[in-house]
Design goal:
Shape: elongated
Order of helices and strands: HEEEEEEEEEEEEEEEEEEEEEEEEEEEEE
CATH topology of the largest domain: Immunoglobulin-like
CATH class of the largest domain: Mainly Beta
Helix content: under 10%
Radius of gyration: 35 Å
CATH superfamily of the largest domain: Immunoglobulins
Distance between the termini: 141 Å
């Protein structure tokens, strides 16, 4: 009896197994509020962003040599879904860009954009000062240069700061119009010289470290430079003023300091025009009523510097 039951039970078991194998298990539907593709056009093709659904991030690895200030992404979303905002250009230094996608069932998903700029580091700055000599830079000077392995010829991508004992950053003025970057070959290798940057006119005469930032790289000198009062520069200006009136002169470069006198020659005699007031960037001068009508060439004197004759006229008219 037992021997007959065994084959019957085996047949029932095999039938049950085959029946179970025929059943299909439905996979959960993928949410339709996803970003499925994120592409960044570049000069030689496109860069694809890495989309991580686990932490809802999009990471773009951007080589520095593309020299991009912004990226203009092309974004693809799930069928039937839409971006809540337009895919606008993004500053490559942005750390706050997000994208929200709404599915056709009104569910939402938000992704954070991460831009990883692939640069050659570390950033090394050629020290302006030496162990025995501290370099002096004139307050307001427009002709400051700094060297380092910047790996860019775009001056606007190089940010230069002076950092004092209070650790506050003071940005130097880098102009896309006048500042230049020139690659040079030194004994230590290829180096870039950033020229024609300006010291702000309001900084104190003190010691500062030089800090440079190129995209996400930072570098700082180990030795300080010293800001000093250089020979003041007066901007060209044709002056026309009446007897007894005042006029102003100004500087967009090296600042006024210890302004001693402004004079003209009248009848072969040096004659002072009184300095009513002055700041670092502007001076108010008065023309005495006794000065005869005419055109004069002024001479200025600042303490610590020899007198210099200016190349612009003062036209005195009748009161």
């Amino acid at each position: 009896m037992k021997s007959k039951l065994v084959p019957i039970l085996c047949c029932l078991l095999i039938t049950s197994v085959f029946t179970a194998c025929k059943k299909t298990v439905d996979l959960p539907e993928l949410p339709n509020n996803r970003i499925t593709e994120y592409k960044v056009p570049v000069s030689d093709g496109t860069i694809s962003g890495v989309i991580d659904e686990s932490d809802k991030t999009i990471t773009v690895y951007l080589p520095f040599y593309y020299q991009l200030d912004v990226i203009d992404p092309q974004i693809t979303v799930s069928s039937g879904a839409k971006l809540n905002t337009e895919a606008a250009p993004v500053d490559v230094m942005s750390e706050t860009t997000t994208y929200t996608v709404t599915g056709n069932n009104n569910s939402t998903s938000t992704y954070k954009l991460k831009i990883e700029i692939q640069q050659l580091g570390p950033l090394v700055i050629v020290e302006p000062s030496t162990a025995t000599t501290t370099t002096g830079w004139a307050i307001g000077s427009k002709t400051i240069s700094i060297q380092g392995n910047f790996n860019t010829t775009d001056p606007t991508k190089i940010k230069v700061f002076l950092v004092g004992s209070d650790l506050v950053e003071h940005a130097l003025i880098v102009s896309g119009q006048t500042s230049t970057v020139t690659p040079v070959i030194l004994a230590t290798g290829k180096t870039y010289t950033l020229s024609n940057i300006q010291i702000p006119q309001n900084l104190a005469d003190a010691d500062y470290k030089v800090r440079v930032k190129v995209l996400r790289l930072n570098g700082e000198t180990t030795r300080p430079i010293k800001l000093v009062f250089g020979r003041p520069v007066i901007d060209y200006k044709v002056i026309t003023a009446k007897q007894g009136e005042t006029f102003t002169i100004s500087t967009s470069g090296e600042v006024f300091n210890n302004f001693q006198e402004l004079s003209i020659m009248v009848g072969g005699q040096k004659t002072l025009l009184p300095i009513v007031s002055y700041t670092r960037t502007e001076a108010t001068i008065r023309i005495p009523e006794s000065i005869p009508v005419g055109t004069y060439t002024p001479t200025v004197l600042f303490q610590g510097w020899s007198a210099s004759t200016l190349n612009w006229p003062i036209n005195v008219t009748a009161k």
